Amino acid sequence: xxxxxxxxxxxxxxxxxxxxxxxxxxxxxxxxxxxxxxxxxxxxxxxxxxxxxxxxxxxxxxxxxxxxxxxxxxxxxxxxxxxxxxxxxxxxxxxxxxxxxxxxxxxxxxxxxxxxxxxxxxxxxxxxxxxxxxxxxxxxxxxxxx
Amino acid sequence: xxxxxxxxxxxxxxxxxxxxxxxxxxxxxxxxxxxxxxxxxxxxxxxxxxxxxxxxxxxxxxxxxxxxxxxxxxxxxxxxxxxxxxxxxxxxxxxxxxxxxxxxxxxxxxxxxxxxxxxxxxxxxxxxxxxxxxxxxxxxxxxxxxxxx
Lengths: 146, 149
Known about the structure:
- The complex is a heterodimer.
- Chain A is α+β, with helices and mostly antiparallel strands.
- Chain A has a domain at about 5-20 and about 60-145: Roll (Thiol Ester Dehydrase, Chain A).
- Chain A has four helices and five strands, in the order E-H-H-H-H-E-E-E-E.
- Chain A has a five-stranded antiparallel sheet with strand order 1-3-4-5-2.
- In chain A, strand 4 (about 120-130) and strand 5 (about 135-145) form a beta hairpin.
- Chain A is elongated, with a radius of gyration of 17 Å.
- The N and C termini of chain A lie close together (about 10 Å).
- Chain B is elongated, with a radius of gyration of 17 Å.
- Chain B has a domain at about 10-20 and about 55-145: Hotdog Thioesterase (Thiol Ester Dehydrase, Chain A), CATH 3.10.129.
- In chain B, strands 1, 2, 3, 4, 5 and 6 form a six-stranded antiparallel sheet that branches.
- The chains are: A alpha+beta, B alpha+beta.
- The interface of A and B includes residues 34, 49, 77 and 141 of A.
- Strand 2 of chain A pairs antiparallel with strand 3 of chain B.
């Protein structure tokens, strides 16, 4: 690890990343997680329950967003606490006819929100948006650092 | 369906253990687009001091949602799963989840709040090894939408 809690400053950026999401990604996440709710892969079912279309699993977005933090910290085990609220769904368009085209684009940015030098932890606040709207709110990861 | 009024305070004991396999860790990591080598390569995990592959920070949701399924499938609870929306989620890791772990989860219904015709239900899954060592605490709130919501 190269990051040290003693050299961080509150407000400092840890970087940003862009996550492209396709329907296939949601099928993969369903399989890996065991969450087969059809709102995440079946257009007519999703519309039938009043959604604008197929939406990403909130847990997919939460799981994908934290990679910015683990990569920055240098060890996935450094994340000791991670929370979020799910405020807006990420609608994933069907782009199966256009291979390589994302069905949704999620933007993730992180800043240092708090530092606890006694515990040797830092709280990273994530801003996660799709289609110009915040999809995760109060997305915070606490990392233990050297 | 109506949410059982005495749901708050209920708990569901640990069911079948979940065996964390290396391929499950790799599959889950790919599924959340994680690329850190500690998820894929045992030597890379070892270089960071871990005994085996490190699961991504949200991997515990697999074990937590299996525990939640007991509640949602309980006809006595009165939850219509087709009307469930995930409202918030938190993981506190007491130690990282590693390939080779045998995990169990005890589920607690911490809070039930009526909202319109539905309810917000907060559950807590205490995840431990089969030997009882604490691994993670997963707290989830689900919104069960009422009819017409």
